[in-house]
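User: For a reading group we're discussing how well predicted structures match intuition. Take 2,5-diketo-D-gluconic acid reductase. Before you show the prediction, I'll give you the sequence so everyone sees exactly what went in.
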Amino acid sequence: MTVPTLTLNDGKTIPQLGFGVFKVDPEETERIVTDALEVGYRHIDTAAVYGNEEGVGRAIAKSGIARDELFVTTKLWNDRHGADESKRALGESLEKLGLDHVDLYLIHWPTPENNNSVETWEAFPSYRDQGLTTSIGVSNFDHRYLPQILDTGIIPAVDQIECHPQFQQIETRPLLTEHDIKVEAWGPLGQGKVDYADTVIGEIASAHGKSWAQTIIRWHLQRGHVVFPKSNNRDRMAQNFDVFDFELTTAEVAAIDGLENGLIVNKSVEPV
Ligand code: NAD
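Assistant: Thanks. Here is the predicted 3D structure of 2,5-diketo-D-gluconic acid reductase, as structure tokens, for the group to look at:
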């Protein structure tokens, strides 16, 4: 199965469906990412703070998959902001991943208390120029923090941000659309904390002979989001990858859009 790609505002492409490793135990990461690569995923989303970049790197090395067939994202953690410090942090991430470059490097969170996200962001294009990352972007920059980033004139290729049927980033979306910044939807399945089978999603899923999770992933794809659901379970990894043989109608997409109610599923990861 070839996963569709989206073209970013820097002209590079990104596979629209990937595999995320938030909260994947570092001891288990190599096995879990190996499973994901065997299932067919070629886009892996990790972060320095997940503590599992080494496991991701080992799985990639062991897979024998050509580097240019893979898309790897990692993220700068909050205590490594600043121009010099972020460069050191990226170097450490690359070493752990066993790679000479990532495909996408993100600022993980705005750090308003230190007022240093902008200084960090202004250093990011040099990492792209040095070939340490192909594209650059931000994460968790909503309508409160994105304007300061945009004021630099350096436009992020993506904003990786919580996004699922009950929290669609309504306030931030106009800025993202205006600058052609792709939404990377984290927590795309509501982190498994919401009983979506009991909503209109359950009915739509039954109509297509698919699960609620596949239906939500399909909704993300049709809304133009990049999405990387996480599961430690190989059957669910395969299920989440099996989303290219059906299509939601316009009315079904609209019905899922209608579930928006401002539900933030993971309050523990608000900016620190
Ligand atoms: P998710 O919405 O992908 O939910 C994962 C959970 O959903 C699993 O643990 C499991 O309980 C359940 N699940 C997965 N597949 C299922 C299926 N087919 N059927 C039933 N239940 C299923 O949440 P997530 O892992 O938080 O988000 C995905 C990725 O987004 C992460 O792994 C990470 O890469 C990224 N992320 C980024 C940030 C950020 O701050 N940038 C924050 C959270 C997550």
